[in-house]
Structures are given as C-alpha cells and as structure tokens.
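Field: sequence (string)
Field: structure_tokens (string)

Example rows 1 and 2, in order.
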Amino acid sequence: MLARKCPSMVCRPLSKTIELYSTSIVSKTTTLSHPPTLDLNDYKNKEEMWQDLQSSYYLHDFSKVIKLFESGSVPKRIEMYTMAAASYLESHQQDKALETAEACKSAVPQIDKRFYGIIMQKLLLHATEIHQEDRVLDIILKFWNDFKQDFTDLKTSKSPSTIRICTTLFTALLRNHKYSQLIEIWEQELSHFDKEITTNQILLSTVLASYVKQKDKQGVENMLQLLRKNDMHLDKESLSYIVSWHIENENIKALKSSLQYAATKEVRVSPAEYIKAAQLFVRHQQYSDALELVEHSLYKKYLAPSKAVYSLAILCSQRLTLMDKAIQFFEEMKKAGLKPDENIYNNVIDGFCRVTDAAHSAIEYLQIMKQEYPNANFSYAYSRILHRLYVNEQDADFLEFYVQHVKNDTNGEENRSMIHHEMIKVLLRNHFLSQVTQYVQMLKEKNLLHDPSIRRAIPKQLLNQFNYK
C-alpha cells in the first residue's frame, strides 16, 4: 500500500468520503460470487471516476480499481497505471500486472520518479510469489534505463523516489544472482553520486554482497573503507556478508573482530554463519572461541537448538575437558527432543577419556550408547577407553573391559590396530608371555600382522617365530 495520502480524499466533502467508505464496506461484506455491478453512468464526469478509483485503491477495493481501469474511461495518469498494476498483483493477476507496467511508458508521455519507484517496488515484492523473477528483473532494468534517460539530475538527486529506485534495482539484481551486473552499475553509474545515494545502507549492503559473491578482495576492502569513512554501522545483512567473506578466506583474526562487533552492537548475523564460524575455529583447534560463540548464540537465541549446534558445543567442551559443561549440553539436547547420534556419544566418551580418572564415566556412556545403537561400530569408543586404562596402568580393568566388550564384537574389527597394540603391551607389562603368543597367533590368522603399529608392539624374537621381520 502507498505511504502518501490520496489528494482527492483531502479535498472531497466529508459526506462523499463517508459514502465511498460505506460503499467499500458493503462491497467487502458482499459474497464474492455476487459482486456489485459497476455502472459508469453513475459518474458525472471522468474526474469523478478518477477520484473513485483512488479512493477504492486506498480502501483496498482492488476489484473496483481493476474494473474502472479496464473501462478505459479513466484519464491516463501515471498514478492510475501504478494503482492498476498494484491492484492486479494484489488480486493475483500477475500477467495483467506485468502487461500494465510495460504499457505505461508508451501510454503516458510524462513519467515521474514516483511511478518508477512505486511500480518497481511492487513488482519486486511479488516477484518470488509469481515465479517470474527473470521477467520482473527485465522490466525493472527497462524502467531503470528509461529512468536514466528521463532525468538528467540523477547524480545530484536526493529524492526518496530516486533512492527507492536504486535500492529496488540492486535488490532485484542480487536476488537473481546478477553480481557482476550490479557491480558494473555501481562502479560506472552510481559510485560517484551524491552522498545520499553512496551512503545508503541498503545499496552498500547489496554491493558488498556482490563483491563477496564474486570473491573480489579489492572490492570488499573498498566497501569496508567506504563504510568506515562515513562512520556507518554495519547492519545484519552487511555483517553476514563480511563474516561469510572472512570464513571463506579463513581470516580468523578479522572474523573474531567482526563477530565481536556484532555482539557489541547486538546485531545478529545469519544462523548459518555462526555455525560456519564455529566450525572454522574448531578446524584451527580454537575450541575456546568456538565454544564461546556457540554459547553466546544459544543464549541470545541467535541459533535455534539443533543437533549440529549441540554437537559443536559438546565437541568443544570435551576438547577443553569441560565435561560438566559437555554433559549439560548433552542433557539440554535430549530435553529439546533431539536424540544424540553415535558421533555425539563418541565425543562424550572421548571427553571423559581425556580426564585422568574418568574412564568409569566413559564406560557408563558406552553402555547407554549400546542400548540406543546396538548395531553401531564401537571401535572408536573401545580404543579411547582402553587407551585411558592403558595409560593409567589399570591393567586388570583393561583386560576385564576387553573381555566384556571387545573380544566377541567383530563389528569394525579391521579398525582396531591401536587396541591390538596396547593389548600386547599390557600382556607384556604383566609378563603374560604365553597369552602374548596366543594373541599374536590370533592376529596372524586374521592377517593383521602386516599393520606397522601392531608389529611395533611385538618383540622381534616373537615376530621371527611367525616369520615376520
């Protein structure tokens, strides 16, 4: 709906306005299958018809606007085409709206900026709904070219209509992934305009986004410099594009600075960027930064609870051996109705195994995991628990755990070289020489003695007995 007041509603007598409003209310409450008929003879002249068209538009009686427009009796004015095209759009007659917009240029000799701005905005608003984004963009570009030819004062214009036209054009280009075309218009036609244009937040955000999408490093730096020069705060869209840029280029220092800026100004970026940033910190083993980002985003509700978010939080917590926090996230996840998967269980088990005296807790979560996923591959969990018991020199617990959990579980047996290595070391450490021989014989039968890590644990003399050097 247009923001300005209808001039005719100001000058018309109050009785006439009330009469029109009452007629509109009756029209809206009448059943759609029996709409009131429109008799053009009820109007004294064309000017009264034009005033009724305006009033009907502002009262959202779009069907009446369309009937008056299609009668061909209303004087051809820019506003009439604007209201007719908008009414077609509101009535889901998209093709008619586009035809009306295209016809306006030839029908009306004098086009003003209001038409360009309003109809471009209306078309863009409905572009996705009508699934004709390409056609709408073509029309918007046509209006843009006409607009440039019609107005010689474009470069110094401070008109809200001019700004509306520029921002609508750039938004349409960005939506249609026309990044290079947007950049070309900016660099060749708009970048040297009056400050009202070149410091517009929406314009700069779309230009920045296009430079990011085109991976134009110099263009991104120029836009950031322009933003700093004009002391402009970054909005959500601009921050998201900058964060995305830093993530893609793995510029961790700049990424932290941008995220700190967002936190200070309480501006949120897109949820996907928070997750990607945390994942980048994890890849660079900066677990404290990743955990702080995820916690802050959850607390501020920038991120909705999800398996991916909690998985990141648990991973970072266990790498920092903050197992109380890891279990807190684990329980919050379940309360949110999210079932921990095998990787999350493995991360919890791994976290407990990083703590010197917490192997028993790791075993507890392994048992829960087995209940939840009885057919899973537990080789990683076995390896981590046995390694902790081996390092702690809890050899009796090591052997007991192996017999109870590992010995008869053949799922994933090919990935247990470290388990075999440490089993041989434990047996040797306790001088169970006959058991070592039996164990090596079992490994030979399973054709596993070719593994270098296993052979390193076996004394050379014993390897020679089995013809391995």
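Row 2 begins here:
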Amino acid sequence: MLKIANNLPNQGQPGCQALPVGAVGRCGVAIAQALLLLSLLATVGCQGHARVRIISTNLSRVSLLEANTSVLTLDSDRCVHWIDQAGRLNIGLSIQQGSILGRAHSRELFISFVLDKPTAGVGRDYRANRDTLRGYYREGPKAYRFRSLYGAVAIENRSNQQLAGAFRIRLSLRASQWLGSWSRSLPFLIFGTFQATPDRADRGRTIRQKTEVEGWTREVELLVPAPPLEQEQPTITAPIVSSQPTFLKRPATASQPEKP
C-alpha cells in the first residue's frame, strides 16, 4: 500500500524528509523529456533503419589515398517495404543529412530494391540481377548513380509486418561530370543490413522514383508485353496448274536470219 510522506512523522528518516521547493517541477520536466525521447525512438522505429557499406573493387588500379581504400558506411533512418502492381516486393531506404553550411556540406542517399514475389513463410533468398537495385548518392556537389550487376538479398519476416534483410551486391557505379554527363562504369561492392516497416505514406515509391530518373529506369519496366494481335485465318485456294511445266518453257528469242 502506498503511503504519503507528509502524513508520516518526520523522525530524521531520509524517506520522510520534505521535498525542497521546485523539486516537483524539475521532476515533471524530467518526465516530460523522457516521454519525448521515447516518442522519438518510437517514431524512428516505425520508419525502419539500415546500415549500408560501399567499397571499391577495382583490382587493376589502387592509390594510397585513404578514400580509395576505406569503406563508406552510411546509416539510414528510413527503410520501408511495399508490394507493387506486379506483385513484386519493393524496399526503399534513404538518408538525408543537411548542414548549416549549406548544400555543399550535405549528403543524401536513396536506394531501391525490386525483388520477386514475397513469401508467406519465414523468409526467402533472392538472386540479384541488373534490375534488383538502383541507387543515388550525393555528397556536396558530387553525385553518383549505381545499379546492381549480381549478388544476393536475404529477407526474413518479423512481427508487426516488419522485414529484416541483408544484401551483398556487385555494383556498376558512375560519377557525375560536367554538362550532365557521367563517367565510365566503376566496379563497387555494396553490402549491409536493414529492417523495413510497411510503407503507409508512399515514401518508398518516392525513393524508387528518385533512383530511376535520368535514364536509369529498370529494364523490366521497359519490357511491357503488347496485347496479342488478332490474326486473320488465310483463305486456302487451289493452286493454278499450268498446262505446261515451267521448266519446259523456253524463253522467247528474236528470230535469227538464215545463213546463206
């Protein structure tokens, strides 16, 4: 049973001492801050999360620069999944980190996965192809676009319609250049893990659109089957038979003058 401290006689016991003035107010502020923190954590959890790592796999050329040999690690605070009209499992993740110094010091990442139909079981392994992954990464004024070549994606069904996954995929990456052109294809490897939540606000579809612009549309989307044509049945007629076979006919020639 709970007891109110003010109703107990003050006999020097620590538990019975009166609270100082303002303590209740400070406790209320602390409780409010704790509730705000919990709500923020809940919001982040509802949007999913991911950790992405990208490293160059160029075996023909390497430099001593740290940026050329290190792994780029990016943490995403948004990762969602949905089913498209073709019944395929889609996953989208994004990172948008601004800076008070402006766009030149900000960076953003958008990655979209298009997999085969989802499974109702515990999970499924998918083989990645050229249409599986599309990505866009910008750091300051420099931008990069990449697509999958081959690899693997593993998906596990979790509670509350959440999906846990891991991936390891070879990439073809191109860097932006002057006048809107792109560099030659560079070999990279991308790998990581994610936990995706259901996309209830169409944010994942927006992520996918950002990864497919500027000519990076998935090839499977371009292969739209045309409706079957109604072919007319040919009319069968009897062949015309000549009275004289063709190979017996001699070509007409001009009459030659008689020799004396």
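free_text_note (row 2): The beta strands are 49-56, 72-76, 78-83, 89-97, 107-114, 123-128, 133-139, 142-157, 163-175, 186-198.
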